[in-house]
Design a protein that fits this description.
The chain has 586 residues and is α/β, with parallel strands linked by helices. The chain contains 18 helices and 10 strands. Strands 6-7-8-3-9-10 form a 6-stranded mixed sheet, with helices on both faces. Strands 2-1-4-5 form a 4-stranded antiparallel sheet, with helices on one face. β9 and β10 form a beta hairpin. α2 packs antiparallel against α3, α5 packs antiparallel against α6 and α13 crosses α15. The radius of gyration is 36 Å and the shape is elongated. Bound molecules: adenosine-5'-diphosphate. Adenosine-5'-diphosphate binds next to α10.
Length: 586
């Protein structure tokens, strides 16, 4: 996206407050017009003063009128300027928060495939710094850029009309400014993009390290991680410093040319005065114009510099905002009502990338209330298959139906309300136990929370904490044990009460008591709903209606526990191995 289009897009984000934005813009233009009055009045006053004769006779009423007019303009400028600044600040702040929440909503609704590819630290950085840049540009637009830009295009022709010889010097100065800026922009464009990449890398790395602080400590990696971050900082500075140096050169050269221009105007003005081609008042007015114009020119360069520096950051922001979710509601998508829970996979294949498929030609079904277990080695495609059911991804071929309706014809929110997922890690927010439980049912009463916790075997440990349901669970539930996190997420699913349930059984070994508690909790949550279990312990699935044995994304064997054991295939070997391990361990 070019700089101009980028800037237009930045301003377009003010659309929800277009009325106020337009009023502020017009007020700004009025202010800019008022600024022109000052040099004109100044010149006229000088000429009136110069006309005072040696006898002290002057046109006092005219002088007084001129001074009062000046006073009037000054009062208008100050009052109007303050109001514009105040409302512009408020508008920019309000829109910054508005855009931030729009970005947040957009990012949250992007599919898991996007989130697997982009680190949350980077997304946070893009959100905070992107909205910061927008805010800065909006403030700048109302405070300086707009009036500066307009007055620049008024001042230049005006100075030509006033005295074209002197104006030529100003035009030459504009050409120098424009040339230098364009040159340095071209020179540093790539580097500035690199700087932004480095900033994103920095944010990603810092947040990744902080999120894994237990790992950092256990491997005594504090120094190594700090060094890693410093390396990114070094690379960032290596790109940033040349950019800063180039812009410093612009600053030096433009200032020098400004001084030279002013001196030339004085010299040429003096000469023109001797030739009778300019009065002293005219020269003073022209000098004031020149100063204003130069001020605007410098303002324009710093504005261009700002847009230039912010551009990569804004491009990154808009890129995320423009990312289209491939998983969207189809027009005419329906709400699921009275779900019975019949699920059917028909020849479903899906691959994450161009490598081999994660699941390949899956066909199976579950009748309402049935339990289907998925077993097999890690990486066999079990989680992927079930993620397709709640449309974390869409399969490249084949289809999945619930109660005979293709899930792509169902509204996504409605589909996901009908499916409960108990994740292996028991994902939790850094909020209270109650808030975590209410995720699937915000209006649940405390009694309902207690009942769900009781059924999930979680009530005892919740109540053992002095703050009970108000206790915070820490980032990702760190202040709880793995078994506790699991039981909380089971309680959450019980509360949500979905007709279809996906259970990703924890792989980590639990002590015998926790294991028993968890088993009771699992049986409780599975009651009366179609359940898919990714099972690691075969004891869990003894009573499953159907067991699907996965290998390399395909279903190798399919049947009940006893039938599969009798088949003497992969499953029976798996069962034997677990049995042997279990007996040798005891
Ligand atoms: P399982 O649940 O049986 O352990 P998965 O469904 O997690 O297996 O993984 C199936 C295959 O897909 C594996 O080869 C795995 O590496 C790959 N895979 C899983 N998740 C992703 C992802 N987000 N991006 C790319 N590949 C993935």
């Amino acid at each position: 996206m070019g700089y101009f289009r980028l800037y237009v897009r930045v301003l377009a984000l003010l659309a929800p407050n277009a009325g106020l934005a337009r009023t502020l813009a017009i007020a700004n233009l009025a202010l800019a017009a008022a600024h022109f009055a000052e040099p004109v009045l100044f010149g006229k006053i000088i000429d009136a003063l110069a006309a005072i004769g040696p006898n002290g006779r002057a046109d006092w009423p005219r002088l007084a009128t001129l001074l009062l007019t000046w006073l009037g303009f000054a009062a208008f400028t100050i009052l109007c300027g303050t109001l514009v600044a105040l409302y512009a600040d408020q508008l920019a702040h309000r829109r910054r928060q508005g855009v931030l929440s729009e970005y947040f909503e957009h990012v949250l609704s992007l599919p898991l495939a996007f989130h697997s590819a982009v680190h949350s630290g980077r997304l946070m950085k893009v959100m905070l710094q992107g909205t910061d840049s927008l805010w800065g540009l909006w403030i700048g637009f109302f405070r300086d850029h707009l009036s500066g830009f307009v007055s620049f295009f008024v001042l230049l022709p005006l100075s030509l009309v006033m005295n074209w010889r002197l104006a030529l010097l100003l035009i030459a100065l504009c050409v120098v400014f424009a040339g230098l800026t364009a040159f340095v922009m071209r020179k540093t464009e790539k580097l500035q993009s690199l700087v932004e990449d480095r900033y994103s890398e920095l944010a990603e790395r810092a947040s990744d390290t902080l999120g894994n602080v237990a790992l950092v400590h256990s491997f005594a990696r504090v120094q190594a991680e700090v060094q890693g971050l410093r390396n990114v900082i070094d690379r960032l500075l290596a790109a940033q410093i040349p950019v800063l140096s180039w812009w410093a050169v612009v600053s030096v050269l433009t200032r020098a040319s400004t001084t030279l221009t002013i001196l030339s105007i004085i010299a040429l003005g003096a000469y023109l005065n001797t030739q009778g081609q300019a009065s002293v008042g005219e020269i003073v007015t022209f000098m004031s114009f020149a100063t204003l114009l130069i001020d605007r020119l410098q303002g324009t360069v710093s504005f261009v510099n700002r847009v230039f520096m912010e551009a990569p950051r804004l491009r990154e922001f808009f890129e995320v905002l423009d990312t289209q979710s491939v998983i969207r509601d189809k027009s005419g998508a329906i709400e699921l009502t009275d779900v019975r829970g019949a699920v059917e996979f028909r020849d479903v294949s899906f691959h994450y990338d161009d490598r081999r498929p994660a699941v390949d030609g899956l066909s199976f079904s579950a009748a309402p209330g049935e339990t289907v277990a998925l077993v097999g080695p890690t990486g066999a495609g079990k989680s992927t298959a079930l993620a397709l059911l709640y449309r974390a991804f869409d399969p490249q071929s084949g289809s999945i139906a619930i109660d005979g309706t293709d899930i792509r014809d169902i509204k996504i929110a409605s589909l996901r309300r009908s499916i409960g997922v108990v994740f292996q890690e028991g994902l939790l927010f850094n909020r209270s136990v109650a808030e975590n439980l209410r995720v699937g049912r915000p209006d649940a009463t405390l009694d309902e929370l207690r009942e769900a916790a009781r059924r999930a075997q979680a009530l005892d440990f919740i109540e053992a904490h002095p703050d009970g349901f108000d206790a915070r669970v820490g980032e990702r539930g760190r202040s709880l044990s793995g078994g506790e996190r699991q039981r909380l997420s089971i309680a959450r699913a019980i509360l949500k009460n979905p007709p279809i349930l996906i259970l990703d059984e924890a792989t980590s070994a639990l002590d015998a008591r926790t294991e028993t508690l968890l088993q009771i909790a699992l049986e409780e949550v599975m009651k009366g709903r179609t359940t898919f279990v990714i099972a690691h312990r075969l004891a869990t699935i003894r009573n499953a209606n159907r067991i699907l044995v996965f290998q390399h994304g395909r279903i190798l064997e399919n049947g009940t526990f006893d039938a599969l054991v009798a088949q003497d295939g992969v499953f029976s070997q798996l069962a034997k191995a677990q049995f042997v391990t279990a007996t040798s361990a005891s």
